[in-house]
């Protein structure tokens, strides 16, 4: 790969990772620490249809993904831990999958017309990040 292209992709990856990590960390923290009633008030009606423990698992996965897309590439880049590249790929793939499931769920609940902007604004950068990580890590 051309060295200039690699640098551009790495910068793009850090920018995308920051954006995606911020939003998933914020969402995961909210889902993990808020009472179910507060989540419903915030427009997350789906939380009443599944066990509260599953809502908390989703929150933990979002938090782990957010940390993974930042810490794993940092470990590769700054500490030379080549094995951490697989964790970065797994984190980006997991967050992308999370958004695919969210879109499917919202479509099934006839909510996608209200949530599509938020859903796709996280799915597209998550997928782009996954592709960039696959190319440069």
Describe this protein's structure.
- The protein is mainly α.
- It is built from 5 helices and no strands.
Notable traits:
137 residues; mainly alpha; 5 helices; elongated
Amount of helix: over 70%
Gross morphology is elongated
Whole-number count of domains:
1
Low-confidence stretches: none
Strand content: under 5%
The DSSP helix count reads 5
Listing every helix as H and every strand as E from the N terminus to the C terminus, the arrangement reads HHHHH
Q: Which secondary-structure class do the elements indicate?
A: mainly alpha
Quantity of strands, as a count: 0
Report the end-to-end length measured between terminal Cα atoms.
Answer: 12 Å
If you compute it from the alpha carbons, what radius of gyration comes out, rounded to the nearest whole angstrom?
Answer: 16 Å
Mean pLDDT, to the nearest integer, reads 96
Taking the sheet with the most strands, its summary is: none
Question: How are the elements arranged and paired?
Answer:
Blueprint: H1 3-33, H2 36-41, H3 52-79, H4 84-108, H5 112-136
Helix pairs in contact: 1-3, 1-5, 3-4, 4-5
């Amino acid at each position: 790969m051309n060295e200039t292209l690699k640098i551009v992709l790495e910068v793009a990856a850090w920018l995308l990772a920051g954006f995606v990590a911020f939003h998933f960390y914020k969402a995961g923290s909210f889902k993990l620490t808020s009472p179910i009633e507060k989540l419903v008030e915030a427009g997350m009606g789906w939380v009443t249809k599944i066990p509260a423990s599953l809502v908390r698992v989703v929150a933990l996965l979002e938090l782990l993904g957010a940390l993974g897309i930042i810490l794993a590439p940092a470990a590769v880049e700054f500490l030379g831990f080549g094995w951490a590249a697989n964790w970065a790929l797994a984190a980006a793939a997991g967050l992308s999958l999370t958004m695919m499931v969210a879109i499917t769920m919202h479509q099934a609940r006839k909510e996608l017309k209200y949530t599509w902007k938020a859903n796709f604004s996280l799915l597209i950068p998550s997928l782009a990040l996954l592709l960039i990580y696959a190319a440069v890590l």
